[in-house]
Amino acid sequence: MQRHTMTIADATVIIETKDGFPKTRYRQGTARPPTARPPEELRAAVRLIEDFIARRTIDRSAIARLLPDSPPFHAACWRAALTIPAGETRTYGWLAAAAGRPKAPRAAAAAMARNPLAPLVPCHRVVSASGLGGFCGAMERTSAAAPKHWALLMKLRMIELESEDSYTRPASKHNSRKKALHR
Asked: If residue 43 lies in a helix (H) or strand (E), which one and from where to where?
């Protein structure tokens, strides 16, 4: 298995291969130093994540090419999430409908929890109808329970990374929650 590490916000991102596809996971803190040069099979994913961090335009089709095709509904959710504009959010219900199963928001949430390429597949842009929801799927578990507060803050920081004005947009249901959690 090939591996590369880098830093986003206050997290270490570990990018590795799994079943021939790149996969990301997060560890709280930046204890691991970044890997100097990514292995060949991870370079495309690393380059795209570097573009995300630098707020450069990312070719969504390049991300889609790195995604597995199964399970089919998960793959449909991952690809549908790619259509959500940077700095905006959508609900799991919206995602389920966009993936072809409008009555399956919980299954859409499960797909986001298994997102192999966060933040490239922007699971941080998908929220529950009643609030932000979690961002624990890609987190490396160091205890039985993931640190949910940190996960929510990480979700907010990802949205913030995408849009400098994400906290100054007109108040909406989701922006109000972001501000309250960010304080």
From this structure: helix 43-53
Q: Where are the domains positioned within the chain?
A: 3-182
pLDDT in tens, 143-159: 444 555 555 666 666 66
Q: Provide the whole-model pTM.
A: 0.72
Spell out a b/e string for 103-134, using b for 16 or more CB atoms within 10 Å of the CB, else e.
Answer: ebbebbbbbbbebbbbbbbbbbbbbeeeebbb
Active site residues: 123
Measured over the CA atoms of residue 36, residue 45, residue 49 and residue 78, the dihedral's sign is negative
Region 3-182: CATH code: 1.10.10.10
CB 18 within 8 Å of CB 68: no
**ω before 68 within 30° of 0 (cis)?**
no
